[in-house]
Amino acid sequence: MKLPKIPPLHVETMEETTKHVNQLTKPLGSLGQLEQIAIRLAGIQGKKIPDVSRKAVIVMCGDHGVARSGVSAYPPEVTGLMIHNFVQGKAAINVLARLAGAEVHVVDVGSYLSEVPKQVINKKVRKGTRHFAEEEAMTEEETIQAIEVGIEVVEQLKQKGVQLLAVGEMGIGNTTIATALAAVFTQKSVSELAGRGTGINDHALQQKIEVIEAALERHQPNPDQPLRVLSQLGGLEVAGMAGVYIGAAAAGIPVMVDGVISTVAALLAVKMEPSVRNYLFASHLSVEPAHAVLLDALGLQPIIQAGLRLGEASGAALAFPMFDAAVAIVREMATFADLGLPSPK
Ligand SMILES: O=C(O)c1ccc[n+]([C@@H]2O[C@H](COP(=O)([O-])O)[C@@H](O)[C@H]2O)c1
Ligand SMILES: Cc1cc2nc[nH]c2cc1C
Prior knowledge:
- This protein is an alpha/beta fold.
- It has helices at 11-23, 32-45, 77-87, 92-100, 140-159, 174-186, 190-193, 202-219, 226-233, 236-251, 260-272, 289-298, 314-332; strands at 55-62, 102-110, 121-122, 164-170, 255-257, 280-282.
- The chain has two domains: 11-49 and 330-339, Nicotinate-nucleotide-dimethylbenzimidazole phosphoribosyltransferase (CobT), small domain (5,6-Dimethylbenzimidazole Phosphoribosyltransferase, Chain: A, domain 1, Orthogonal Bundle); 55-326, Rossmann fold (3-Layer(aba) Sandwich), CATH 3.40.50.
- The chain contains 13 helices and six strands.
- The protein has a six-stranded parallel beta sheet, with helices on both faces.
- Helix 1 (11-23) packs antiparallel against helix 2 and helix 6 (174-186) packs across helix 8 (202-219).
- The longest helix has 20 residues, at 140-159.
- The site of 5,6-dimethylbenzimidazole (DMD) has 8 residues, from helix 3.
Protein backbone atom coordinates (compact mmCIF):
# COMPACT_ATOMS: atom_id res chain seq x y z
CA MET A 1 0.00 0.00 0.00
CA LYS A 2 1.26 3.46 -0.88
CA LEU A 3 1.38 5.74 2.15
CA PRO A 4 1.17 9.54 2.08
CA LYS A 5 4.35 11.58 2.58
CA ILE A 6 5.02 12.70 6.13
CA PRO A 7 6.66 16.08 6.71
CA PRO A 8 9.68 16.22 9.05
CA LEU A 9 9.51 18.21 12.30
CA HIS A 10 10.63 21.86 12.19
CA VAL A 11 13.85 21.35 14.11
CA GLU A 12 14.76 25.06 14.19
CA THR A 13 11.40 26.01 15.68
CA MET A 14 11.85 23.32 18.32
CA GLU A 15 15.22 24.81 19.21
CA GLU A 16 13.66 28.26 19.39
CA THR A 17 10.87 27.08 21.69
CA THR A 18 13.32 25.10 23.83
CA LYS A 19 15.41 28.23 24.27
CA HIS A 20 12.33 30.26 25.20
CA VAL A 21 11.09 27.60 27.65
CA ASN A 22 14.52 27.61 29.31
CA GLN A 23 14.28 31.38 29.83
CA LEU A 24 10.90 31.29 31.56
CA THR A 25 10.71 32.16 35.26
CA LYS A 26 10.97 28.65 36.72
CA PRO A 27 13.77 26.23 37.50
CA LEU A 28 15.06 24.58 34.31
CA GLY A 29 12.92 21.61 33.28
CA SER A 30 10.56 22.06 36.22
CA LEU A 31 7.39 21.90 34.14
CA GLY A 32 8.34 18.39 33.06
CA GLN A 33 6.15 16.90 30.35
CA LEU A 34 4.41 20.24 29.73
CA GLU A 35 7.70 21.53 28.35
CA GLN A 36 8.21 18.49 26.15
CA ILE A 37 4.66 18.78 24.81
CA ALA A 38 5.09 22.48 23.98
CA ILE A 39 8.39 21.87 22.21
CA ARG A 40 7.10 19.01 20.10
CA LEU A 41 3.89 20.88 19.22
CA ALA A 42 6.10 23.77 18.06
CA GLY A 43 8.10 21.34 15.94
CA ILE A 44 4.95 19.91 14.38
CA GLN A 45 3.32 23.27 13.62
CA GLY A 46 6.51 25.20 12.83
CA LYS A 47 5.38 27.91 15.26
CA LYS A 48 7.33 29.02 18.32
CA ILE A 49 4.00 29.41 20.12
CA PRO A 50 1.77 26.59 18.86
CA ASP A 51 -2.03 26.71 18.73
CA VAL A 52 -4.20 23.70 19.59
CA SER A 53 -7.47 25.47 20.26
CA ARG A 54 -9.45 23.40 17.73
CA LYS A 55 -9.57 19.85 19.04
CA ALA A 56 -11.34 16.76 17.80
CA VAL A 57 -11.85 13.21 18.97
CA ILE A 58 -12.22 10.30 16.56
CA VAL A 59 -13.94 7.14 17.85
CA MET A 60 -13.39 4.21 15.48
CA CYS A 61 -15.98 1.47 15.89
CA GLY A 62 -15.88 -2.16 14.80
CA ASP A 63 -16.94 -5.66 15.79
CA HIS A 64 -14.94 -8.85 16.06
CA GLY A 65 -15.59 -12.50 15.16
CA VAL A 66 -13.67 -13.59 18.25
CA ALA A 67 -16.28 -11.92 20.49
CA ARG A 68 -18.38 -15.09 20.16
CA SER A 69 -15.69 -17.04 22.04
CA GLY A 70 -16.54 -15.71 25.52
CA VAL A 71 -13.60 -13.27 25.70
CA SER A 72 -15.58 -10.21 26.84
CA ALA A 73 -17.79 -9.45 29.83
CA TYR A 74 -20.35 -7.92 27.42
CA PRO A 75 -22.09 -9.16 24.26
CA PRO A 76 -21.18 -7.74 20.81
CA GLU A 77 -24.54 -5.90 20.60
CA VAL A 78 -23.04 -3.34 23.00
CA THR A 79 -20.83 -1.96 20.20
CA GLY A 80 -23.93 -0.87 18.22
CA LEU A 81 -25.73 0.36 21.34
CA MET A 82 -22.73 2.52 22.23
CA ILE A 83 -22.61 3.95 18.69
CA HIS A 84 -26.18 5.21 19.31
CA ASN A 85 -25.11 6.49 22.73
CA PHE A 86 -22.16 8.41 21.19
CA VAL A 87 -24.34 10.23 18.68
CA GLN A 88 -26.80 11.13 21.42
CA GLY A 89 -23.93 12.76 23.29
CA LYS A 90 -24.45 10.60 26.35
CA ALA A 91 -21.33 8.41 26.56
CA ALA A 92 -18.28 9.11 28.73
CA ILE A 93 -16.34 10.43 25.75
CA ASN A 94 -19.07 12.98 24.98
CA VAL A 95 -18.97 14.30 28.52
CA LEU A 96 -15.17 14.45 28.67
CA ALA A 97 -14.79 15.96 25.20
CA ARG A 98 -17.38 18.64 26.05
CA LEU A 99 -15.40 19.55 29.17
CA ALA A 100 -12.26 19.88 27.05
CA GLY A 101 -14.00 21.85 24.29
CA ALA A 102 -13.42 19.12 21.70
CA GLU A 103 -15.74 17.86 18.96
CA VAL A 104 -16.48 14.11 18.68
CA HIS A 105 -16.53 12.22 15.37
CA VAL A 106 -17.85 8.66 15.42
CA VAL A 107 -16.74 6.42 12.57
CA ASP A 108 -18.33 3.04 11.86
CA VAL A 109 -15.63 1.09 10.04
CA GLY A 110 -16.98 -2.36 10.86
CA SER A 111 -19.77 -2.73 13.40
CA TYR A 112 -22.59 -5.27 13.12
CA LEU A 113 -25.19 -2.47 12.84
CA SER A 114 -27.36 -2.75 9.72
CA GLU A 115 -28.68 0.77 10.10
CA VAL A 116 -26.11 3.33 11.11
CA PRO A 117 -27.36 6.59 12.69
CA LYS A 118 -27.02 9.50 10.26
CA GLN A 119 -24.66 11.46 12.55
CA VAL A 120 -22.10 8.65 12.25
CA ILE A 121 -19.43 8.77 9.56
CA ASN A 122 -20.50 5.53 7.90
CA LYS A 123 -17.42 3.93 6.34
CA LYS A 124 -18.24 0.32 7.05
CA VAL A 125 -15.83 -2.01 5.29
CA ARG A 126 -17.69 -5.12 6.44
CA LYS A 127 -19.89 -6.18 9.37
CA GLY A 128 -17.29 -7.36 11.88
CA THR A 129 -14.09 -9.28 11.29
CA ARG A 130 -13.83 -13.03 10.79
CA HIS A 131 -12.87 -15.13 13.84
CA PHE A 132 -9.07 -14.82 13.97
CA ALA A 133 -8.46 -18.28 15.41
CA GLU A 134 -10.37 -19.85 12.51
CA GLU A 135 -9.27 -17.77 9.52
CA GLU A 136 -7.70 -14.45 8.64
CA ALA A 137 -9.69 -11.66 10.27
CA MET A 138 -9.64 -9.45 7.16
CA THR A 139 -8.50 -9.70 3.56
CA GLU A 140 -5.62 -7.48 2.53
CA GLU A 141 -8.08 -5.38 0.55
CA GLU A 142 -10.35 -4.87 3.56
CA THR A 143 -7.36 -3.97 5.71
CA ILE A 144 -6.14 -1.33 3.27
CA GLN A 145 -9.67 0.01 2.87
CA ALA A 146 -10.01 0.43 6.66
CA ILE A 147 -6.62 2.19 6.90
CA GLU A 148 -7.71 4.53 4.11
CA VAL A 149 -10.88 5.35 6.05
CA GLY A 150 -8.71 6.70 8.87
CA ILE A 151 -6.53 8.71 6.49
CA GLU A 152 -9.58 10.23 4.76
CA VAL A 153 -11.35 11.17 8.00
CA VAL A 154 -8.25 13.11 9.09
CA GLU A 155 -8.00 14.84 5.70
CA GLN A 156 -11.56 16.11 6.19
CA LEU A 157 -10.86 17.30 9.73
CA LYS A 158 -7.71 19.05 8.52
CA GLN A 159 -9.87 20.99 6.01
CA LYS A 160 -12.09 22.08 8.89
CA GLY A 161 -9.06 23.47 10.73
CA VAL A 162 -8.61 20.83 13.45
CA GLN A 163 -5.26 21.32 15.23
CA LEU A 164 -5.14 18.46 17.75
CA LEU A 165 -6.59 14.97 17.55
CA ALA A 166 -7.39 12.24 20.06
CA VAL A 167 -8.05 8.71 18.84
CA GLY A 168 -10.08 6.02 20.54
CA GLU A 169 -12.33 3.09 19.74
CA MET A 170 -15.34 1.02 20.61
CA GLY A 171 -15.49 -2.68 19.81
CA ILE A 172 -16.51 -5.55 22.05
CA GLY A 173 -13.72 -8.15 21.98
CA ASN A 174 -11.01 -5.76 20.86
CA THR A 175 -8.72 -6.18 23.88
CA THR A 176 -8.31 -9.78 22.68
CA ILE A 177 -7.18 -8.47 19.29
CA ALA A 178 -4.94 -5.82 20.85
CA THR A 179 -3.28 -8.41 23.10
CA ALA A 180 -2.60 -10.72 20.17
CA LEU A 181 -1.06 -7.84 18.20
CA ALA A 182 0.98 -6.76 21.22
CA ALA A 183 2.35 -10.31 21.59
CA VAL A 184 3.49 -10.27 17.96
CA PHE A 185 5.25 -6.90 18.15
CA THR A 186 6.71 -7.03 21.67
CA GLN A 187 7.66 -10.72 21.77
CA LYS A 188 6.20 -11.00 25.27
CA SER A 189 4.03 -13.97 26.23
CA VAL A 190 0.25 -13.80 25.85
CA SER A 191 -0.26 -14.59 29.55
CA GLU A 192 1.93 -11.62 30.53
CA LEU A 193 0.05 -9.26 28.24
CA ALA A 194 -3.57 -10.39 28.59
CA GLY A 195 -5.86 -8.43 30.89
CA ARG A 196 -9.49 -8.44 31.91
CA GLY A 197 -10.73 -5.94 29.31
CA THR A 198 -14.31 -5.00 30.20
CA GLY A 199 -13.97 -7.04 33.42
CA ILE A 200 -13.88 -10.78 32.68
CA ASN A 201 -13.49 -13.46 35.37
CA ASP A 202 -10.60 -15.93 35.72
CA HIS A 203 -12.29 -18.56 33.55
CA ALA A 204 -12.90 -16.13 30.67
CA LEU A 205 -9.34 -14.78 31.01
CA GLN A 206 -8.00 -18.30 30.54
CA GLN A 207 -10.26 -18.72 27.49
CA LYS A 208 -9.01 -15.39 26.13
CA ILE A 209 -5.37 -16.44 26.51
CA GLU A 210 -6.07 -19.78 24.82
CA VAL A 211 -7.90 -18.29 21.84
CA ILE A 212 -5.09 -15.75 21.30
CA GLU A 213 -2.47 -18.50 21.47
CA ALA A 214 -4.50 -20.56 18.98
CA ALA A 215 -4.66 -17.60 16.57
CA LEU A 216 -0.92 -16.98 16.84
CA GLU A 217 -0.21 -20.68 16.33
CA ARG A 218 -2.44 -20.76 13.23
CA HIS A 219 -1.11 -17.61 11.53
CA GLN A 220 2.55 -17.55 12.65
CA PRO A 221 2.50 -13.75 12.20
CA ASN A 222 5.73 -12.07 11.13
CA PRO A 223 6.34 -8.79 13.02
CA ASP A 224 8.28 -7.45 10.05
CA GLN A 225 5.09 -7.50 7.96
CA PRO A 226 2.72 -5.18 9.88
CA LEU A 227 0.04 -4.97 7.18
CA ARG A 228 -0.07 -8.74 6.88
CA VAL A 229 -0.27 -9.16 10.68
CA LEU A 230 -3.14 -6.67 10.77
CA SER A 231 -5.04 -8.73 8.15
CA GLN A 232 -4.41 -11.95 10.04
CA LEU A 233 -5.50 -10.69 13.45
CA GLY A 234 -7.75 -7.66 12.84
CA GLY A 235 -9.54 -5.54 13.53
CA LEU A 236 -11.26 -3.01 11.34
CA GLU A 237 -11.18 -0.22 13.97
CA VAL A 238 -7.52 -1.00 14.69
CA ALA A 239 -6.74 -0.55 10.99
CA GLY A 240 -8.89 2.60 10.93
CA MET A 241 -6.94 4.05 13.86
CA ALA A 242 -3.60 3.14 12.23
CA GLY A 243 -4.88 5.14 9.25
CA VAL A 244 -5.74 8.07 11.52
CA TYR A 245 -2.18 8.18 12.86
CA ILE A 246 -0.70 7.99 9.37
CA GLY A 247 -3.17 10.61 8.13
CA ALA A 248 -2.50 12.93 11.07
CA ALA A 249 1.26 12.72 10.53
CA ALA A 250 0.81 13.39 6.81
CA ALA A 251 -1.46 16.36 7.61
CA GLY A 252 0.97 17.71 10.22
CA ILE A 253 -1.54 17.30 13.06
CA PRO A 254 -0.46 16.15 16.55
CA VAL A 255 -2.42 13.11 17.67
CA MET A 256 -3.03 11.64 21.09
CA VAL A 257 -3.14 7.91 21.66
CA ASP A 258 -5.68 6.56 24.18
CA GLY A 259 -5.69 3.08 25.75
CA VAL A 260 -4.31 -0.33 24.85
CA ILE A 261 -6.19 -0.78 21.55
CA SER A 262 -5.42 2.65 20.13
CA THR A 263 -1.79 2.25 21.23
CA VAL A 264 -1.31 -1.06 19.44
CA ALA A 265 -2.75 0.66 16.35
CA ALA A 266 -0.16 3.41 16.82
CA LEU A 267 2.62 0.83 16.99
CA LEU A 268 1.32 -0.73 13.76
CA ALA A 269 1.33 2.68 12.07
CA VAL A 270 4.90 3.31 13.25
CA LYS A 271 5.97 -0.14 11.99
CA MET A 272 4.47 0.80 8.61
CA GLU A 273 6.02 4.29 8.60
CA PRO A 274 8.48 5.14 11.42
CA SER A 275 8.19 8.94 11.01
CA VAL A 276 4.57 8.76 12.28
CA ARG A 277 6.15 8.55 15.75
CA ASN A 278 7.04 12.27 15.67
CA TYR A 279 3.34 13.17 15.73
CA LEU A 280 2.21 10.85 18.56
CA PHE A 281 1.55 11.72 22.20
CA ALA A 282 0.53 9.28 24.94
CA SER A 283 -2.35 10.41 27.11
CA HIS A 284 -2.67 7.92 29.96
CA LEU A 285 -1.67 4.51 31.22
CA SER A 286 -4.47 1.95 31.00
CA VAL A 287 -4.97 -0.85 33.51
CA GLU A 288 -4.45 -3.42 30.70
CA PRO A 289 -1.01 -5.03 31.23
CA ALA A 290 -0.07 -4.73 27.55
CA HIS A 291 -0.41 -0.97 27.59
CA ALA A 292 2.80 -0.11 29.45
CA VAL A 293 4.73 -2.53 27.23
CA LEU A 294 3.32 -0.93 24.07
CA LEU A 295 3.98 2.65 25.22
CA ASP A 296 7.52 1.58 26.04
CA ALA A 297 7.95 0.06 22.57
CA LEU A 298 6.83 3.41 21.12
CA GLY A 299 9.03 5.40 23.52
CA LEU A 300 6.00 7.39 24.73
CA GLN A 301 5.40 8.64 28.25
CA PRO A 302 1.79 8.71 29.49
CA ILE A 303 0.57 11.90 31.17
CA ILE A 304 -2.23 10.49 33.34
CA GLN A 305 -2.42 7.37 35.47
CA ALA A 306 -5.95 7.14 36.81
CA GLY A 307 -6.86 3.45 36.62
CA LEU A 308 -8.76 3.97 33.35
CA ARG A 309 -9.80 1.04 31.13
CA LEU A 310 -12.64 2.43 29.08
CA GLY A 311 -11.38 3.28 25.62
CA GLU A 312 -13.49 5.67 23.46
CA ALA A 313 -10.53 8.13 23.64
CA SER A 314 -11.68 8.96 27.18
CA GLY A 315 -8.14 9.08 28.59
CA ALA A 316 -6.99 11.19 25.67
CA ALA A 317 -9.84 13.67 26.17
CA LEU A 318 -8.81 14.00 29.81
CA ALA A 319 -5.30 14.95 28.70
CA PHE A 320 -6.45 17.79 26.39
CA PRO A 321 -6.12 20.44 29.14
CA MET A 322 -2.43 19.52 29.50
CA PHE A 323 -1.94 20.59 25.88
CA ASP A 324 -3.74 23.89 26.49
CA ALA A 325 -1.54 24.34 29.56
CA ALA A 326 1.65 23.61 27.61
CA VAL A 327 0.77 26.27 25.04
CA ALA A 328 -0.35 28.82 27.65
CA ILE A 329 2.95 28.47 29.52
CA VAL A 330 4.96 29.31 26.43
CA ARG A 331 2.60 32.11 25.44
CA GLU A 332 2.05 33.81 28.80
CA MET A 333 4.89 33.24 31.27
CA ALA A 334 7.47 35.94 31.92
CA THR A 335 11.12 35.33 31.12
CA PHE A 336 14.01 36.07 33.50
CA ALA A 337 14.89 38.98 31.18
CA ASP A 338 11.38 40.42 31.72
CA LEU A 339 12.22 40.56 35.44
CA GLY A 340 15.58 42.17 34.72
CA LEU A 341 17.43 39.02 35.77
CA PRO A 342 20.09 37.17 33.78
CA SER A 343 18.84 33.93 32.15
CA PRO A 344 20.32 30.66 33.28
CA LYS A 345 22.73 29.46 30.59
O1 LIG B 1 -8.57 1.58 26.47
C1 LIG B 1 -8.31 0.55 27.10
O2 LIG B 1 -7.17 0.31 27.53
C2 LIG B 1 -9.43 -0.44 27.31
C3 LIG B 1 -9.27 -1.45 28.23
C4 LIG B 1 -10.32 -2.31 28.42
C5 LIG B 1 -11.50 -2.21 27.67
N1 LIG B 1 -11.61 -1.21 26.76
C6 LIG B 1 -12.88 -1.06 25.98
O3 LIG B 1 -13.71 -2.20 26.18
C7 LIG B 1 -13.98 -2.88 24.97
C8 LIG B 1 -13.07 -4.06 24.82
O4 LIG B 1 -13.08 -4.88 25.96
P1 LIG B 1 -13.33 -6.44 25.77
O5 LIG B 1 -13.35 -6.99 27.17
O6 LIG B 1 -14.67 -6.55 25.10
O7 LIG B 1 -12.22 -6.93 24.94
C9 LIG B 1 -13.70 -1.88 23.86
O8 LIG B 1 -14.89 -1.23 23.50
C10 LIG B 1 -12.68 -0.92 24.48
O9 LIG B 1 -12.97 0.39 24.10
C11 LIG B 1 -10.62 -0.34 26.57
C1 LIG C 1 -20.87 -0.19 28.13
C2 LIG C 1 -19.53 -0.18 27.44
C3 LIG C 1 -19.01 1.04 26.99
C4 LIG C 1 -17.75 1.03 26.35
N1 LIG C 1 -17.02 2.00 25.81
C5 LIG C 1 -15.90 1.48 25.32
N2 LIG C 1 -15.93 0.18 25.55
C6 LIG C 1 -17.05 -0.14 26.17
C7 LIG C 1 -17.57 -1.36 26.62
C8 LIG C 1 -18.80 -1.38 27.26
C9 LIG C 1 -19.35 -2.67 27.76
